[in-house]
What does this fold into?
Amino acid sequence: MIDLKKFEVWFITGSQHLYGEETLKKVAEHSQQIAKGLDGSGQIPVRVVYKPVVKTTEEIYNTLLEANRTENCIGIITWMHTFSPAKMWIRGLSILQKPMLHLHTQFNQDIPWSSIDMDFMNLNQSAHGDREFGFMVSRMRKNRKVVVGYWQDEEVLSQIEAWTRAAAGWHDWQGAKFARFGDNMRFVAVTDGDKVEAELKFGFAVNTYGIGDLVAIINEVSEEAIDALLTDYENTYTMDAALLKGGEKHASVYEAAKIEIGLRTFLENGGFKGFSDTFEDLHGMIQLPGIAAQRLMAEGYGFAGEGDWKTAALVRAFKVMGSGLKGGNAFMEDYTYHFDPNNSLVLGSHMLEVDASLANGKPSLEVHPLGIGGKADPARLVFNVAGGPALNASIVDMGNRFRLIINEVEAIEPIHDLPNLPVARVLWKPYPDMKTGCAAWIYAGGAHHTAYSQNLTAEHLQDFADMAGIEFLRIGKDTRLDQFRNELRWNDAAYKIN
It folds into this structure.
């Protein structure tokens, strides 16, 4: 489990010395109560930490500089209780490197009709203090999320929660390392991209390692470690007798366990947060990693097949953002269609590597031929995925910018058995409908590989894209294809100008 409570966001309130010490004392008291309320709400997954009220250019600069320097600070929440002249914020905002949420709220929910006086008005000035601050942030072209409403409202807490999860995923990418074993699947376009630009834009590094580097570690795995993992398999999954020790297919499971241990060792030794491989580059390996990739993903590693490093990184971000929420996040692929005019569906799957965080019930460990790659039959986990709201997301390199595309979907329970399809699988209906959803995805250049989520929403991904400063496209219940195509044209023009 990825622990988000090790992260914190700083609650920073702006004011000035104009109002006197008594007013500033009240500002501090109210700010501490709001920070404490947010922190104790039970809905926000990270710590919310109160910081002393900032009243001068120097205090603002030093506080934001310290936020940059503090490793476990993943972002700041700003609020102007009184009027805080925004020229004081220029120097601090110019060096801020962490995500920012502007909370446009006030300490009191209601106007105290019978007692309101000018002292109350001088203290509770968020209605125009936040506008002054908002102008400067917009003038400086700084990305941020603006949340409006009373700080105890459920909707406000939900919006802050989404932003903190996005901030955690963004923070996790900074300095992250992803390994590619072998290169991109040959001649494939959408899974490739500019890894230099990705490191500049996203903060993570992607490098390629020869299969021999991995095989050398796999070949050093001890028999004791393999036996222990085989016991874990037997205790965790449904297994046919042929896969157990002495069975005719046991050698395949034995080799899969050996590969899993070697892969985990390589990733741990190198400090990697995810990886990709491809069935075209397997020299020295007996089988393609199937259950190994599935189990490592379930532990929190990012993964995508065929050298797709962008999706591997996105899966890792999903794992972080969704930590602690019901449901899972995994590598996925739109594989084939059911074009029944009365019940059109997408069958999502992959050759081997959809992880069991999505499983509806106990997975079955099975060994079957792969059909491509020319290697031995690989072990993999087979299961169905439960119905319910979900989304698919794809990051693509458009040449002059990265684009994050999501399609909101409704997964459904299997309508038939699939006895001859030995892979993890899920059926879903794309929103707003099959034809519009698929056409919009193709017009946007979305990849066939995606990160699939049962617990994240468009809001999480919008916040994440804003932090990254990349294009965001949502295909959902209200999408109209003509408007969506216009949005693509407008975005193309905007990015050419910029």
The chain has a mean pLDDT of 96. The longest strand covers residues 402-412. The radius of gyration is 25 Å.
